[in-house]
Amino acid sequence: MLIAKSQSGKMMDLSLKKKSDIQALKKKKWYCPSCQEVVIIKNGNVMCSHFAHKQKSDCSSFSENESKEHLLGKKLIAENCKKFSIPYELEAFLPDLKQRPDILVANKYAIEFQCSPLSISRFKERTATYQDNGYQVIWILGEKLHLTSKPTKLQRNFIYLSKELGYYLWELDVVKKQIKNNYFLVATSKKLLRKEKKWNLSHVNFLQILAFSNQKNEKQFYELETEIELFHQLGQWNHQLNQRMPKEMFLQQYFYSKRLNLRELPCELMLPSYKSVLFQEKELILRHAIYELLMNKKKVTKEQIYEKVFQIFKEEEMESYLLVGKRRLIKYHVSLYLCFLLQSGIVIKKENTFIFQMKKLNIRQIEKEILGIPLKYVMINK
Ligand SMILES: [Zn+2]
């Protein structure tokens, strides 16, 4: 921890103190602002100077195993706020929430620098408490949790969604003093696609960095070779079904009940080949629901589509992602799929109504798919 209380009850913040000043402070008595136990200053050469409980404690706010990385990350953000005159409070105690973010910035952003794995239930509890109390929680991931390949179940929970960036997540590298936004996260059957934007915390205002998620950015695109991608996807399913992998077995079951075979799905459902990193294989269920509704009714409104899809995902088990929200997640993917159907001429739109055209798609006609943000699929059918 970087703050402690003096004997007179005044708060001391070590993050901005010089080494020479800290030596003098060591002689005074300090107390944990959370459990009120005695804490001491540690200022060795490895870690940045910090307070630690004198005796082993089960203090609820400050664990004793705070890593060098975690201390340094908090300090870097605090120094940035100081430099750019942004109001902040390190390890601020929020009494209504009984929670202590690593640093509260501009009285609004609860910053959590997460350096070690935590349970998803703990993540949800903390996130929900911030959200319910009007704070915007910004989870920034430490080295152990940085994205390498496809996001793990835990990493998926730290993903945000915005119009400008699509799916994104924050990382901090304390050695390089670099904060990174991984954005436009999309999965193909082979790998995770992403773009990156980096800032040095010593030079760029932290609030400007955070604002990146909503400001208009340059358009970004990915391009996929459709046939190759689909061939690969089918091969993967084949293998996974042979191995009786639960997710694929579930999908297979689902499509059997619709008189379809996962290995031979029509390309109206297989495309676009880009998949949501959060929905994953469940995206096919969403697409099928929309496609079936259009095929049966011929004319439907967006509201009817939402109603049907929400109905299905009420019954279907679905992971909930607090930073995105279930409704937003579903609506985003409905709009992407409708966009694809419109662009490939399977539906046309008249005012608020989508009208099904009896058009069959041929994969050979779609050599390449281009996915772009903000928000829209731009498909080329030539
Ligand atoms: Zn304590």
TrEMBL record:
Q: Name one Pfam family in it.
A: CoiA_N
InterPro entries, per database record: CoiA-like_N (IPR057253), CoiA_nuc (IPR010330), Competence-induced_CoiA (IPR021176)
Protein name (database record): Competence protein CoiA
Coiled coil, from the record:
none
* Boundaries of every Competence protein CoiA-like N-terminal domain copy: 17-61
Domain (Competence protein CoiA nuclease-like) ranges: 66-210
Native species: Vagococcus carniphilus
Source superkingdom: Bacteria
